Task: inverse folding
């Protein structure tokens, strides 16, 4: 659990707000920020981005790119989530 002074708590709160707003540019930045993350909450935030109904092609591309990296490194949940996204070209 985070301490009340942890920047991770603030970052998690911000990620939730970005997902709630659904702004494509903000979501792409958030997803890109999780690329090298080892935080356990990363997959939950990615799921939040996947759940958004109207996803831009750019967001889908970055979701697939990040999930592909994680799946390649053995993350079974990332592999499962990858199957929920259409294949798109990069923008």
Result:
């Amino acid at each position: 659990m985070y301490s009340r002074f942890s920047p991770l708590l603030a970052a998690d709160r911000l990620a939730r707000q970005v997902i709630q707003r659904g702004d494509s540019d903000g979501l792409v930045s958030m997803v890109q920020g999780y690329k090298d993350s080892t935080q356990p909450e990363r997959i939950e935030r990615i799921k939040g981005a996947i759940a958004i109904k109207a996803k831009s092609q750019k967001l889908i591309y970055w979701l697939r790119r990040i999930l592909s990296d994680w799946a390649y490194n053995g993350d079974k949940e990332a592999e499962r989530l990858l199957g929920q996204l259409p294949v798109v070209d990069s923008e």
